[in-house]
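user: can you give me the structure for this one chain? tokens are fine.
assistant: on it. calling the predictor now.
[tool input]
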Amino acid sequence: MVLTFMASAVAAEPRRAVASPLPTCGLGTHLEFVVLDANRDGYPESDAAWQCVGHSLSFYGRSYFTACPDPLGFCVTGYVFLRASEVLSAPAVTPTPHRRAVREPRIFFLDADGDGYGGGEPIIVYSGPILSRWVLHGGDCNDANPLVHDWQPSLLPDCNGNGIAESDQPQTICVGDGEPFTWTDSSGSHTAVRYRYVEGNFWIPASSARRKADGALLLETPCSSPH
């Protein structure tokens, strides 16, 4: 279960608009990830790509679409585009310039905030270059904040990053990459890890938080800047 902290300590995370990398379709059309299969034999004749398509046709259990690139929704070709996820797994004959062997599928995720981790539903790509902003790493817990991408359990707030927690209640938080930090006390120099949350704010694993001589957590008054 993901816990949240007190509302008084929560600040809105930065958001920014992200332009879609996909084409905009006209009236009565929609986007599909397709390959060209003009003879409808199930084998691709082009790399996979996003296309604006119209009506569909089922042919031997496979989904074919008309191409509709016109912004008014006019469809200019027949049922020649095959849904990429439905291409046959191996070519019936040796590949030629008009028939391409199917490559191993790759799974990509849209990376809206540009941090290298994607969120939302994946797409399957069988061949060809991937569009910009699509990445192989999914599971971004907040794809609107480029500083965070992964859930980490048992974290304590440490807003100034000095290793001293402001609470003794561990929480599961969406954070960025861990980074080492060092502090020195009467017992010597210590190195631990902290996780970035928003710019200038951190969370630390409960096991890495600074402690008193008796092993109890060393706590300080919450920072004036919220977590």
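assistant: here you go. The chain has two domains: 30-135, 147-208. The CA atoms of residues 45 and 99 lie 5 Å apart.
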